[in-house]
Amino acid sequence: MCGIVGYVGGQSALDVVLAGLKRLEYRGYDSAGVAVLADGALVASKKAGKLINLEKELVERPLPAGGTGLGHTRWATHGGPTDANAHPHLDGAGRVAVVHNGIIENFAALRAELVARGRTFASETDSEVVAHLLAESFAGCGDLAEAMRRVCRRLEGAFTLVAVHADVPDVVVGARRNSPLVVGVGEGEFFLASDVSAFIAHTRSAIELGQDQVVELRRDGVTVTDFGGAPADVRAYHVDWDASAAEKGGYDHFMLKEIAEQPKAIADTLRGRIGAGGVLTLDEVRIPPDVLREIDKVVVVACGTAFHAGMIAKYAFEQWTRLPCETELASEFRYRNPIVDARTLVIAISQSGETMDTLMALRHARERGAKVLAVCNTNGSTIPRESDAVLYTHAGPEVAVASTKAFLTQVVACCLVALYVGQVRGVAAGRGAEVREAVRELAGMPGAVEDVLRTMEPVRELARSLARKDTVLFLGRHVGYPVALEGALKLKELAYMHAEGFAAGELKHGPIALVEEGTPVVVVVPSGGGQSVVHDKVVSNIQEVRARGAWTVVIAEEGDEVVVPYADHLIRVPRTSTLLQPLVATVPLQVFACELATARGNEVDQPRNLAKSVTVE
Ligand code: F6R
Question: H or E segment at 162?
Answer without folding.
Answer: strand 157-165
